[in-house]
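Q: We require from you a single protein entry containing the residue sequence and its fold in token form, and nothing else.
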Amino acid sequence: MNKSLLKSGFVFICALFIGLFTSCQKIKGYGIVLWNLPEYNLQDGDVVPVYIRSNITQQYVIGTRDGKAEVSLWQISEPVSKGKAKKLAATKYNTYRHQYATVAMNGLPMRAEPVNTAKQVYRLKKDEVIKVLYEINGQPPMTGGKPLEGKWFRVLTTDGTQGCCFSYNLRLFETDITGQRVGGTEVVEQKNDNSDFDSLLANRWYPDTYRNMIESGRIDPSKFNLSYYFQLDTENKKLYFSMEGVNRSWDYKGAVSSGANAYTLTEIPIIVTVRRDNYIVVRYTGPSGKPEDFNLVTISQDINELIAQEIQRREKEYEQIYMFGPAFKSDSYGTLTLSEDHGFTWNNKSLLSSSGIISQNVSNKGNAQIKYFLIKNLQNSYDGVLTFKFDGYNKEINFLYKMEANGLRLEDATGATMDNGTIRERGMSPLVLFFSKVE
């Protein structure tokens, strides 16, 4: 066969393969917008391509009219084929497209199923705005032996919760492409003042990672930067915004509601979306022109006190190890001596170097700390994590430790899985060191 034909065929097959591969990588499926995205000129019911799903950030990367954008998972339906997505949009979601509702009764329940005895999944607040997704067949609630007038809806809240809600205490309205109300069963004039919103901003808002640490009980003092916050000084009408890579202040001139609990600040490159009373999303557009979202929360506890308590806990844990020793000896790995001020001396540690845990010619002295946490299922086998920092050596060395009746057991954590300061899995075949107490 002609070599040029073979070559052409080979090039064609490669090109075809590459084309197929890249096309598969481009779009994972198509989803339906469930909640208006006015910043991307998208309304609920629009079908958009989905490129990436991140379970870590809880976001999709979708296609918009101007490119690609990251949006929260709850704002887009589960990606399916393009044909199926269009069919769902035209049938299931079409009747109540652009239909939202305000809640007329505080504590109105959302339920798992369309029956009044079903499990509650959410309790709505009076005047809360929700998205009406579609009508669903169910059993109407009874009052005085008679069924209430209305119908069951599948609805969506601003924190992504879906459930069933009966329409009797809902006031439906329609929105336009900007998210503004254009009609409905309850006409509400837009207030010229945003005193409630201004009061909300007067709280001090911190990165949501702070609350995650507090709720998990795993506080890392080094990750609390109290200079990072978002707050309105209502007396002086100044807005302050300080985060990693951002340190700005502006004269505050008010805000305009842009729908779906979102507010665009006047002459300030920020949109604030209120998710809950203690949770907002600040979308800041910096000099680069690329918007960036910051998830912020209020914290009722005294952060300085929480940090002090965590530092005290770490000191107490280290003190227990020190009092248990303070000197430990291993025939193979030398003598480890701890001092009360967190210093340590590790003599005759050559085997530690030959095992690859530390480099050769590292100092025998350094600093020992309690810095990291253990996941619950490891706490039965270990007391905690002991961190060594040798003088003049940049790398810290972590060991899972256990104080046993006759000595101290250390397990090298070099290959362990660590996430957000917590060791979640041991390493594969880790080196275990045992030291007897030196009496």
User: Anything to note?
Assistant: The first strand starts at residue 29 and ends at 32. The radius of gyration is 29 Å.
